[in-house]
What we know:
Elements: H1 3-35, H2 37-44, H3 57-88, H4 94-100, H5 103-133, H6 144-161, H7 164-173, H8 179-184, H9 186-200, H10 205-241
Helix pairs in contact: 1-3, 3-5, 3-6, 5-6, 7-10, 9-10
Amino acid sequence: MNQENMEIVDHLDELRKRIIIILATFIAAFITAFIFVQDIYDWLTKDLEMPLAVLGPLDIILIYFSIAAVVSLALAVPVIVLQIWLFVKPGLTPEEQKASLMYIPASFVLFAGGLAFGYFIVIPIVLDFLLNLGAGTFETMFTADRYFQFVLRMTVPFSILFEMPLVVMFLTSIGVITPHGMHKNRKYAYFAIVIVSVLVSPPDFLSDVLVIVPLIFLYEASISLSRIVYKKRMRRLRESSD
Length: 242
């Protein structure tokens, strides 16, 4: 086996190791979350003024599994980012390694911030709007399955998309993207944001707006952060070439 093939095998072994650690962390977090899933369920439904109905016994376990999965994903995010960082670490310079290490705690903060934004800000506004829309016309009754589908659609996409500034900073730090490129392709990014927002949000105009506006703000903030990282990277490259 030649040197190139050996390097490919080593990379694949390293990737397999990182994936196993991520899966093991997720499973451990899932089991922990499932133990406390009833408490989590009670907390998520404490502000509802009506009981949630289920249409079959399997709905209960599916709802509990969905809640536990989201909680375990949130708990596993720092480990996931750490494993990604360890995988790409050998290809980074010492300065890039030190700078990108801060992304690990930041990833958890942004993920949790996205969940909190969706749950505490977006959901109350959208839910109140939808309930008032049918007030006096329809008798409102939620099934647990439909309600938690709504909650997940209003929280999980935000938690993932809130990682955008972090991803942009990292890709800028290793030279994959530039702030000029992001600025030049802004109209395409806006179009993609609109498409994603329509797909992940409930089918009403207010929900679309509540998703689109924060994502556009995140994209613009990402450009600003990319400029900062890009300037630092160019300065390091100039210093290393002198």
